[in-house]
Amino acid sequence: MADGSGPDTRTSPAAAAAVPARRSWRLPTDAEPERPRYPVVRRLVLGSSLMLFLELALIRWLGSNVVHLSYFSNFVLLGSFLGVGLGFLIARKSWSLLPAGPVILAVLVVATLLAPVTIDRAGDQIIYFTSLSTSGPPAWLVLPLIFVLVAAVLAAPSEVVGRCFGELRPLTAYRWDLVGSLIGIGSFTLLSFLGAPSVVWGVLVTLAFVALIGGRQRWVAAGAGVVMIAFLLVETVQPGISWSPYYKVHTEDRTYAGLPLTDISVNGVPHQIIRPASQRLIEEPQYGYPYLRTPQNPLRNVLIIGAGSGSDVAIALAQGAQHIDAVDIDPRIMQIGAEKNPDHPYADPRVTRHVNDGRAFLEATDTTYDLILFALPDSLALVTGASQIRLESFLFTEEALIAARDHLSPDGAFSMYNYYREQWLIDRLAGTVETAFGHTPCVDLSAGAQAVVTAALDEGKQSCATAYTPSGTVVAPASDDRPFLYFQGGAIPALYVWTLGGILLISLIAVRALGGPFREMRPYADLFFMGAAFLLLETKNIATFALLFGTTWLVNALVFAGVLVIVLAAVETTRRFRTPPLPVVFGGIAAALAVSYLVEPAWLLTLPLVPRLLVAVLLAFVPIYLANVAFAKRFAASDDSRSAFGLNLLGAMLGGCLEYLALLTGYRNLLVLVAGLYLLAFLLTPRRGGALVSL
């Protein structure tokens, strides 16, 4: 666990030692040739593929159906960590959880669909806060149940992998586990690219479970899978349901005042309304304010970030825009706009569509614009299940608005609007614009805390209705290091603290029940801190890549796959070559972390794409590579694999919880905590005869 083995640290070398306690045969020594055990390898690869594929599917699917999960970015991931670890511990026992896996999964799916959590709120394009009223089961009931059920589901395929580890050399098994993980993430990425509905992953998971479960129990698994598939099929065939790489999208056509409308909801939340631009400007005149407040703007070239279904593009065309770059991160939302928008803005030759992250587009383009418009880019979704980053987080930082300013022509202006719902947030955004542009912007307020914030590059070319004065204390601008726009500051919310405390308590109980007394684990305290350190290191890397290359699903998938490839390289290095002693490896980790801390991501944003990618990969993956080598060497010297694995598992759980400290420290300072945890691990490494235990 948590040793540098990928986005879900289930592929750690610790897992390699979770083998049956008794064998009637002997593993070959390192000096003996290993005979291929192809049936075991095939089963291992299938089980490992199922583990990662199922984990990613549950992160996406549960997030689209349970609103509460948007408050807890890594909740399902932490449940997966616990389940995978418990599965390896179960693999040492005579009984098996595997046959119950598909049954538990079916219960989870059916319960989620029969008792949905929804937001009961009118209007379109709302910002998603934890204060929104919800209908359905309360968070205090839903979250623990989901955590436990996810852990139980993931324990089933991980048990298969654990038993296969017991029949192969540890590093051989670890290598094939990584291969299976890459297959799992590749399969899920392909389904995301194709926009496959939920029933597809349900079918694939059922087939994998049936292939892994033998005898009469296979029919029980098949029956549970059929029930689950039936419910997912009902979800899939509902009118207007489709899937983007980020959301479950629901569209509903209706008429209003004799004119066609299309409501778009994502993950159960009202998101956009497609209506004619003329009607929108009459009923919601605030959409015309960016043009009204800069009357001299020639609108020769316009950039709209958050173009979505095209309503804002249609309004810009109606205002006389000569060319528009329309950018949106979600291809499905843009496709719906192309199909259903009555103004057909995406068919206009003056419009160029770009499916990309808005910040990434800004950093990559050399074009200057007369108007840059952030048109309600509220994602209502997180980048991954392993970070606090939302899809739009890096759009509203001080650095992002400075980048927008630098892309304006001398006559240009910047504007953003949304239903912000909170006055403090409007004040914060207006203050961020003032900081970036050096003068007070125009701020037009409407009912429901709607606001339009507009700033011309030249203050003399903006025409405000009234002078803007903040309502109270203004929260400091969000930054690229702390891109938490919707966090006012102060302490971590109590709801987070109590929930994460409950996660750790459940994990302690589960590991104690299956792993034995904690006193037996005391010699492996170093593995505990290594587990916590790696989870934090991975979190920081996810945030950095999201900033440098965009928060798109493809970037996220490539980062996860890249971690697995680097770990596979570390495994092959350890298998084939003599690696340095642990003190040298830990020294390399410290040096790599120091370099990563000193090199600010802002410097990399100034580099062309290829050099930026090369430097980012080195800064992120060298510490991961060295951490994996250190963990493999240390674990190989342990005497009690069960105790060592249990401590490492608890460390991983703690690291996942400590990720929320980024709200207070920022992402860069997480590296200081990572370095401290690795230092503790080094100091706590057992000594024998005055020397560190190592290979």
Word description of this protein:
Strands 9-8-7-10-11-13-12 form a 7-stranded mixed beta sheet, sandwiched between helices. A 4-stranded antiparallel beta sheet has the order 3-4-5-6, with helices on both faces. Mean pLDDT is 83; it is low at 1-31, 119-131 and 381-387. The chain is of the alpha/beta class and 695 residues long. It has helices at 13-16, 38-65, 75-90, 101-114, 139-165, 170-194, 198-212, 217-237, 277-283, 289-292, 311-318, 331-340, 358-364, 398-406, 423-437, 494-515, 525-549, 553-576, 582-598, 601-605, 609-636, 641-658, 662-665, 670-684, and strands at 118-119, 134-135, 241-243, 248-256, 259-266, 269-274, 302-305, 324-328, 351-355, 369-375, 408-419, 442-446, 450-456, 687-688, 691-692. It starts with 12 loop residues before the first helix and ends with a strand.
Layout of secondary structure:
Blueprint: H1 13-16, H2 38-65, H3 75-90, H4 101-114, E1 118-119, E2 134-135, H5 139-165, H6 170-194, H7 198-212, H8 217-237, E3 241-243, E4 248-256, E5 259-266, E6 269-274, H9 277-283, H10 289-292, E7 302-305, H11 311-318, E8 324-328, H12 331-340, E9 351-355, H13 358-364, E10 369-375, H14 398-406, E11 408-419, H15 423-437, E12 442-446, E13 450-456, H16 494-515, H17 525-549, H18 553-576, H19 582-598, H20 601-605, H21 609-636, H22 641-658, H23 662-665, H24 670-684, E14 687-688, E15 691-692
Parallel strand pairs: 7-8, 7-10, 8-9, 10-11
Antiparallel strand pairs: 1-2, 3-4, 4-5, 5-6, 11-13, 12-13, 14-15
Net shape: globular
> Which strand order spans the largest sheet, edge to edge or round the barrel?
9-8-7-10-11-13-12
Strand content: 5-15%
The tally of strands reads 15
- End-to-end separation in angstroms reads 19 Å
Largest sheet: 7 strands, mixed
Helix- and strand-based class?
Answer: alpha/beta
Tell me the number of helical segments per DSSP (H or I, 4 or more residues long). 24
Task: Classify the oligomer.
Answer: single chain
Using the CA coordinates, give the radius of gyration.
26 Å
Could you tell me the mean pLDDT?
Answer: 83
Q: Could you name the ranges where pLDDT drops below 50 across 5 or more consecutive residues? A: 1-31, 119-131, 381-387
